[in-house]
User: Which sequence fits this backbone?
């Protein structure tokens, strides 16, 4: 969750060693500002591209949580805004 938007997590089925390799690749690509490598690493991690789950649920990636089926969950976990 970033600024009220849902973001897809990495595929939990990835082996820990493989996930770590991909995270290292992602961080190196970001440092070098290589957008193609960033995209490739994020796709390999499962954060972009085809969904990695198979239960038929839609991909709510980058949607505002308040506009999704997770609205009630989000409201329960968001501190109230104060004007003080």
Assistant:
């Amino acid at each position: 969750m970033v600024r009220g938007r849902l973001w897809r997590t990495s595929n939990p089925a990835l082996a820990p060693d493989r996930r770590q390799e991909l995270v290292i690749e992602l961080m190196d690509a970001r440092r070098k500002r290589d957008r193609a490598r960033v995209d490739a690493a994020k796709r390999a991690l499962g954060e972009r591209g085809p969904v990695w789950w198979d239960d038929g649920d839609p991909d709510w990636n980058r949607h505002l949580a308040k506009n999704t089926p997770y609205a009630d969950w989000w409201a329960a976990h968001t501190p109230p805004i104060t004007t003080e």
Summary: Residues 16-31 form the longest helix (16 residues). Residues 9-50 form one domain. The two ends are 25 Å apart (CA to CA). Helices lie at 16-31, 35-45, 71-76.
